[in-house]
Amino acid sequence: MHTMKKLILKNTQDFTTISWQKRWWNHKPHFIPNILLVCTVIPLLVFTSCKKDPSAIGLDLHPASDKVTAAVIVSDGIRAYTFTEDSLTTDERSLALLGSYNDPVFGLSSASFVTQMRLLTFNVSFGNNAHADSMKIILDYQSYYGDTSMAQTFHLYELTQSIYPDSTYYSNLNPGSLTGTQAAIGTYTYQPHPKDTALVISLPQTFAQKFIDAPASVWADNTAFLSFFKGFCFVADTLTPGGSIVYFNLLSNKTKVILYFTNESTSSSYSFSINSNCARINLFKHNYTSAQITGLNDSLANPDQLYIQAMAGTGIRLYLPGLQTYRDSGTIVISKAELVIPINDVYTTSNYPSPAKMLNVAFNEDKTYSFLPDYLSGEAYFGGTYNSSRKEYRFNIGRYVQQLIDGKREDLGIALLSGDNRVSAYRTVIKNTGIPEGIRLEMYYFKP
Length: 448
Known about the structure:
The chain is mainly β. It is built from six helices and 23 strands.
């Protein structure tokens, strides 16, 4: 195989780099013949197994006239803008998010959650002349996002409407639709300490007493109990926002609700369970009025920065109109195509780190998402993990690009989203194509 060469962005004998200069809408689409599958597989095997520099890959597989060409598509070859997500399904997730904060870039965001609790044992008897001493909710800390040095305030409500674990619920559900107009059980202000064991919430004695006074039929089974007590709703206060979103593990053995009581002979307690059988919903809200985000939901804007935020916040919709020009040049085979997503680290701090993982999915005509064909090769190949030294994300999307060039797929755009966006509050700012080292597609191809 050839001697290794340093990859540089200029014309060489064996390596050509093309920067997009013409406007994408001046190129007319042309459809080309189908490409044999073997032509795609061979170069892919070379790229994944050979350790040589990309500039030399494929040179000894084809005649001198069939050298591998590299193209870096930037500027008008890529069109991208920031969009707001409508909602996400957030029921029965592993973590519950609670808190609110004013992000200097993304504005006001908040997270609330709803959960049932269930009986661990049935036909409970509290004894003669029992009365409630206290009742506590214990939530196991998992993690957080933001500044935990600021206090958090939330309101705790009892549900008036039943929720069900086999139903689908979305992140934009109005908690008031589940709690009605009743007063809150209580309002709580606390200092988040995620490195501690748990957050302990003390409930009013009068609230605890309602369980002692409940008729015996309530304790027969969970169906009867959930009809009597439908669940809790934790609503973050946004009038006096804190500085973070705290993650709680509701499925931990540490998470529970304990009722302490005394009867005429002894003092005791009864524990309720929050487990995988409980209906649970994460609820998210965003207010971008004070945000620094520009070009929001404007597909014609071309701002220098693009914005990604979890919790059904914002994402990037990205098109590759520059690929249409390759239909004019005859049949080509994509050996490799990497979509490079660089962050602007000016907006990344210890309180607001970039997500460890980014999602990359294709838009469907009905605005739903589907996996790119390259994702089927596995996440290790597909990519999307944050590289802290390069300060970027990379995705291998060669099969997707080939489909676009072959005319087998319409370019409806791809969505770039924060990983774990239903159970985390990450956000990041991305460099758009119009600034140096912005979003780009690094593509390697040859003509069979």
